[in-house]
Amino acid sequence: MALPVNYRVLDATIVFRITADNTLAKAEGGDVAFEVDQLDEVFATGWSVLVNGIVRIVHDEEAERWLGLHADPDPWPGGDRETWMRIHPMGISSRVVRPEEPPLHDNRT
Q1: d(Cα 68, Cα 13) in Å, to the nearest integer?
Q2: Buried residues in 40-54 as b, exposed as e (16+ CB within 10 A)
Q3: Which residues pair with 108 in a beta bridge?
């Protein structure tokens, strides 16, 4: 299952906020995969990073407060997202995609 989140990288971990009843909350303590991609269609390039790790709910109130002040990944959807989660990476892989030759651009107007 793939679920989008707004995230931040902090202290070599990935942090994000969710609603308490979110499917991700049920994954606490489990293995997860986290992927970030970027594509540039103009230059036909891109990259992808895949992190495998353990996801945990942040239960410490002081840590939650600190995350809210310093790492708040302002979620796009509305509603209360008061449950902080943290992915502790166990493995990271990445890939850069680019053409062998620069793309040809049509200069006709």
Answers
A1: 15
A2: eeeeeeeeeeebebe
A3: none
pLDDT tens sequence across 8-64:
998 899 999 888 888 888 899 999 999 999 999 888 899 999 999 999 999 999 998
Residue of 10, 57, 8, 11 whose CA lies nearest to 32:
57
pLDDT of residue 10: 87
Record the pTM: 0.78
Let me know: does 30 contact 55? Beta carbons within 8 Å. yes
How many helices (H) does the chain have, and how many strands (E)?
Answer: 1, 5
Would the CA dihedral through 79, 84, 90, 91 be positive or negative?
positive
Torsions phi, psi of 60, nearest 5? -75, 120
How many CB atoms within 10 Å of residue 84? 22
Phi, psi of 62 (to 5 degrees): -65, -40
